[in-house]
């Protein structure tokens, strides 16, 4: 069962700190569970099953589907997050704003295509549709990510998911990736959820804009 806890965390795209916070235990305790040095308590098992929709049969035997239903991938928050009872989050079109950098530079002048209303959501600056499959199955093309802009890349949480604008030969490349520490000085490592996309080290100086992904909305159908 212990190794399946790690598989669940990876599938949810959570760091050990985030899942440990959700389970109400320390990061070290979760690490011991994942490595088989400690058992999974009945309380933590119930949280996985009841709150994250993990299939109890799969958790015990590894047979069947990992989840009984679509897991709530946006239910965790950082300890510093303050949720708001209700806020109107502007939804922008990247094409309409000519990219992420102009949007972040002068958001007041950017016209939203709509507004998103979600109760008890952490404070967000905006939302955009994503393109591409690098974060599949966690995110797919056409889903919406809600973000909080960062002014300083030194404020990042290693292992968390970010919306980035990267300069590639003078052109803007907008993507959603996990950010991890790189072994190369002056670089960060961009990691995809999709295993078909290789990790990539990128110079910090090439990151033109960055925002922490606070929540996501899955678009299951457009009809």
TrEMBL record:
One of its GO terms (molecular function) is DNA binding. Pfam families: HTH_19, Peptidase_S24. PROSITE patterns: HTH_CROC1 (PS50943). The keyword DNA-binding applies. Residues 5-59 form the HTH cro/C1-type domain. The keyword Transcription regulation applies. InterPro entries: Cro/C1-type_HTH, Lambda_DNA-bd_dom_sf, LexA-like, LexA/Signal_pep-like_sf, Peptidase_S24_S26A/B/C. This is Helix-turn-helix transcriptional regulator. Keywords: DNA-binding, Transcription, Transcription regulation. PANTHER family: HTH CRO_C1-TYPE DOMAIN-CONTAINING PROTEIN, PTHR40661. Gene3D superfamilies: lambda repressor-like DNA-binding domains, Umud Fragment, subunit A.
